Amino acid sequence: MNDPVIEKIMQLRNQLRNKIVIPVHHYQNQAVSSIADFLGDSYKLAVDCSKSDAEYIVFCGVLFMAESADILKKPFQKVIIPASNADCPMANMADLTSVNEIFNKITTLAGTDVVPIVYMNSYADLKAFCGERGGSVCTSSNAHVIMNHYLKQGKKVLFFPDANLGMNTAFKLGLNHKNMILTKKLDNYNDEQVILWDGFCPIHKRFTPGDISVLKANYPGIKIIVHPECPEEVTAQADAIGSTEFILNTINASPAGSIWGVGTETIFVDKLFAANQNKTIVPLKVSECINMKKTTTELVLNSLININEHIASNGTIPLMNIISVPEIYKKDAAAALNKMIDIVTNGLK
After folding, report:
1. What sign has the CA pseudo-torsion 239, 245, 250, 255?
2. pLDDT per residue over 169-203, tens digit each?
3. What is the domain count for the chain?
4. The domain containing residue 38 runs over which residues?
5. Which residues share a beta bridge with 56?
6. pTM (2 decimals)?
7. How close are the terminal C-alpha atoms of the chain, in Å?
8. Using H for helix, E for strand and C for coil, what is the string for 275-290?
9. Is residue 170 part of a domain?
10. Cβ–Cβ contacts within 10 Å for residue 317, how many?
11. Based on the domain organization, do 162 and 189 belong to the same domain?
12. Given the DSSP bridges, would you call strands 78-80 and 136-138 parallel, antiparallel or unpaired?
């Protein structure tokens, strides 16, 4: 049976044609994913949006992702988010005042260059903070490249807001606990190279080694693949660790009959199974992102109706749910985002 909401969306898309583009994050539900112009993790969507020439970017994700699209957009473009309340708990775990205080404290303690690296899961003011100080944004797919870029220059790194991603990234680069310290323990600073903000993703923090033990007992031969936002004790027992895009590509490329236990957002795991029904794919445990679930096809349809009415009225009818990063942050936030893209795609020295 056809979905009448999706049918209306497709009718409006045909009417609006190349005036709109709909980027969709992997954690969105299947119905929303089915209307995507492009799917991806936060890094892929940031790059794809920067290449689009559509006047209206209808971003199906959470607020910080839409902000990144607004920072990188062309002057004539507008970014709209269907679910204006799609927040991110991790992004709220670091604020500009606190980060600035910690950065100044570390700079004093370290007595050398300290570079801030901010995870994509953050708001524009913190991206601008990094850009202003020669730092970079990173994603889970490229954090090791970004961190290594600065460490090999002999610089210290302040990594925020996700301690687990920062720690797992440092491990990937061959560092150990002696090379890292949490910001809450800075009074005990001893020349560590990587300083980790004590934030986390509630979705990935839920996974435990016990979840892995249960799956291994129930599924002989299972391989465990997890996101680097997971705690250290979980990643230590995984067969593979990587971004959402890495998990997607690894499982898609695996042979028929493969058995996978996946430590990331449950809706995404369900979509993996739907696309790979000749494989056994199970979550470590159910762990859904309630903020990603806030975007529905009904809200996307409302956005497209609003855009269509706005165009038809020559702008008399205002656009709803526009994402507009304050101008005071745009230049430096763009510098941090573009620094990431340059380091990853162009091998920036």
Report:
1. positive
2. 999 999 999 999 999 999 999 999 999 999 999 99
3. 3
4. 4-86+291-318
5. 20, 78
6. 0.91
7. 54
8. HCCCCEEEECCCCCCC
9. yes
10. 14
11. yes
12. unpaired
